[in-house]
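USER: I would love a firmer grasp of how sequence relates to backbone shape in proteins. This is the protein in question:
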Amino acid sequence: MSDQNSLLTLTGVSKRFGKPLSKVNLLMNQLGGTYTDEYIYAVSDINLQLASKEVVGLVGESGCGKSTLGRVAAGLLSPERGARTWRGKDLTAMTPEERRSVRLSIQMIFQDPYASLNPRLRAIDSVTEAPIYHGLVDQRNRQEFAQSLFERVGLNPEMMERYPHQLSGGQRSRLGIARALAVNPEFLICDEAVASLDVSIQAQVLNLFMDLRANLNLTYLFISHDLGVVRHLTDRVVIMYLGRVVEEGATEEIFAHANHPYTTALLSEMPVISTERKTFHPVRGEIPSPMHPPSGCHFHPRCPHALKRCSEVVPALIQISPGHLSACHLNDLK
C-alpha cells in the first residue's frame, strides 16, 4: 500500500515512558551509586498503514502496547520517534488549521465509557459540546442534532437529559460512540470498546459498528484481545507482542495460516463450539516486563521453538506470502 492510497500511516513509531531519578538516587550516584533512569518501552519501531474504509484489528496480550499505539495514532500521545502521515502528508508539516481538521477526522472510543464521560454533563451535553465548540453545529439546533445522533446509535432520545450514572453499560457505550461521531470523523480508534459489556450487548454494539461503517464509510482501528470479535469485524489483523508487531495479514489468512509461534498460541486458546473435547494449552510463562524486555526476539523466553539466534538478533518483519508479514527466525529455515 502506497502512502497515497493510505488514510493514516505510522512509520517507525516508538514511544517510551520514563521515570526520572529521585533526588535521593541522584545523591547516591554522587557517592558512587549506579542508579539510572527507568523507561517502559511501550511501542518500538512500529510501521502501520490503514486504507480508507478498512477495518484493522490490533491484537495482543494486556501490556503489549496496543492502547499506547492507538493513542499515538489518535494524536493523544506524541511519538518519541517516527512519523504520522494523513493521506500522505506528514502532520508536522501541516498548518495549524490542517492539523485541527485531522484531529477532528480521527476520534477514539475508549474501553471504559463511564470513566471517559464527564459525570457532570448530561448525555446531550456530552455529544454536542465538541461540535458546537468547533462550529459544526449551531447552539439553536443542538436538540435536533443530538436527537439524530441518538437515533443513529440506537439510543432513545428521551435519555438525552440523563447523566452517565443513570445509563446502563450498553447505553454508555452507545453514548461514547455518538460522541465520537458528533464531529463527522473518517477514522475511529476503538480501544476494547465492547470488552466490558455482556455478550448479548456486545453483539448489538458490534452490529452497530458494522452498520456505521457501511452507512458512513468509516475506517476502524479495532483494538481487542477477543479473537472472535476480531475475526467477525476486521479485514486485516496486526498481532503485537511487547511493543513490536510480530505478524500482520488479511484476517482469513491469519486465522487459516498463522505463521508466528505467538499468533499460533493465541489462536489455540480461542474458544470454539464443538462436541469434541479440546485441551487448551495457554502460552507458557508471563509476559516480560517492558522495563527490561528480553534481547533478540521478545517472545523467545516463551517460545517452544526458540533457537539460539532468537535471543541474539531481532527478527525482521518480512513478507512470507502476498500481504502476509511475519517476524520469526524460523522462516529462514524454510
In short: The mean pLDDT is 89. The chain has one domain: 3-20+37-260.
